[in-house]
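Quick one, probably user error.
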């Protein structure tokens, strides 16, 4: 729309439509002419997007010609404007706008040039010293063809011409609505040929909320998913009741265990009342030894590990003895199994090599996968390549720091870093729509008692 009190002409009508399609309070056109002047009161040809020129020895800055849309009004100036700055002053902003309630008024100046209700947008900010300008910040929101719904703006805008569930024959400048979806489409050429485009564009969000969704793949490096969040690996032992008695034996005693995931090694502690032992074993449930290790130097409460791969869902016996000699076994004779754990379940106590009891526990405790608590790691989250994508839109995340560090990177499909340590709602529209974006979680901690986590990831694209 034009300034108040002025007759609406084709160029202002077109610009007002352009503004309505966007979301900014004001934009500066930087792609040829927004609309050519048909009334003859403006210079023809491209204007210069209100570019600035300045000198380090002068307080006068020159604002060039340009076109803009500010709060729904089309503004154009085909002559330059001089603004005088104050000396030795930082953050002096020059604004572009128009005089509220008056026709044919374009204002370029500092904030004192505008009334309380005069619409304006910042275009440049200057710092000065005692001689002239020392630094400049470009505040303009520059746009070009493709920003505005309808892109190649037409003064012969057509109304909605079709209502149907199938796509009509393309007609530039026309619109149609699909009553099945409620989506409106406009016909225009976005530089790659004329086509129908949704108004507004349809956005698709792909999420990793539990990291176990069917369309989500996760590659772990010293990380895992716990309680629907990506965390650093913790040892997560499974503990039985502490010893309440002891006895003397020369047979193998321990626990029946069943891992909940495949693991390369198993670790445990010697129980508090156990002593005189020399060897720890992993056996099958028939008592056949699969692997063993010397534990003669491991006292009560000490830790050991056995290098034996365990398969998820398979029962094994983790037992100790003194090589056929007598030793003291620690025992809890009033325990209750099975005892479930994050990575390993304790099914029963094992006595005399092959006997089992769900009410007893022997010789070992705190059974766990053998791995140290990790202080740093990462996880790469990916989705299948999206179809029918117009452009990428944004990437976002949620995290729990717990006094530690969690960052998110944007990767291409080959794992190359495109953007590192991104903020929430990060703009990824500059990434090629042929790139299948992945997101990488980076976690680190100085204390293993803290548990930083990534709790949610998402990417969004426009269709």
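Nope, works fine. Designed sequence:
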């Amino acid at each position: 729309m034009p300034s108040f009190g002025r007759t609406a002409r084709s160029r202002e009508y077109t610009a007002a439509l352009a503004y309505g399609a966007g979301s900014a309070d004001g934009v500066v056109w930087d792609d040829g002419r927004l609309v050519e002047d048909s009334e003859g009161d403006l210079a023809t040809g491209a204007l210069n997007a209100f570019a600035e020129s300045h000198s380090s020895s002068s307080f006068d800055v020159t604002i060039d010609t340009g076109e803009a849309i500010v709060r729904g009004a089309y503004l154009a100036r085909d002559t330059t404007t001089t603004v005088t700055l104050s000396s030795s002053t930082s953050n002096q902003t020059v604004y572009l706008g128009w005089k509220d309630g008056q026709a044919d008024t374009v204002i370029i100046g500092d904030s004192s040039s505008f009334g309380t209700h005069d619409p304006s947008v910042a275009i440049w900010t200057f710092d000065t010293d005692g001689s002239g300008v020392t630094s400049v910040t470009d505040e303009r929101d520059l746009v070009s063809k493709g920003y505005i719904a309808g892109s190649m703006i037409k003064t012969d805008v057509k109304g909605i011409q079709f209502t149907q569930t199938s796509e009509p024959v393309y007609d530039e400048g026309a619109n149609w609505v699909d009553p099945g979806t409620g989506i409106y489409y406009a016909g225009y050429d976005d530089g790659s040929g004329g086509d129908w485009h949704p108004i507004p564009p349809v956005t698709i969000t792909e999420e990793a909320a539990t990291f176990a969704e069917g369309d989500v793949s996760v590659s772990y490096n010293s990380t895992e998913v716990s309680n629907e969040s990506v965390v650093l690996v913790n040892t997560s032992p499974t503990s039985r009741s502490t010893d309440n008695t002891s006895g003397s034996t020369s047979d193998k005693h321990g626990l029946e265990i069943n891992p909940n995931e495949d693991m390369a090694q198993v670790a445990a502690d010697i129980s508090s009342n156990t002593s005189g032992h020399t060897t720890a074993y992993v056996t099958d449930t028939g008592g056949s030894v699969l692997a063993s290790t010397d534990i003669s130097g491991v006292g009560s409460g000490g830790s050991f590990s056995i290098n034996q791969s365990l398969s998820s869902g398979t029962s094994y016996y983790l037992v100790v003895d003194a090589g056929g000699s007598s030793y003291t076994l620690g025992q809890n004779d009033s325990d209750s199994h099975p005892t479930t754990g994050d990575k390993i379940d304790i099914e029963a106590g094992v006595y005399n090599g092959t006997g089992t009891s769900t009410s007893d526990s022997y010789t070992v405790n705190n059974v766990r996968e053998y791995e140290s608590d990790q202080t740093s790691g990462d996880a790469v989250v990916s989705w299948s390549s999206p179809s029918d994508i117009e452009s990428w839109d944004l990437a976002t995340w949620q995290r729990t720091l717990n006094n530690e560090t969690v960052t998110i990177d944007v990767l291409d499909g080959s794992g190359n870093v495109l953007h590192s340590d991104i903020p929430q709602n990060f703009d990824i529209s500059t990434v090629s729509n042929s790139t299948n974006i992945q997101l990488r979680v980076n976690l680190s901690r100085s204390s293993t008692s803290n548990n930083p986590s990534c709790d949610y990831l998402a990417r969004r694209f426009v269709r």
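The two ends are 30 Å apart (CA to CA).
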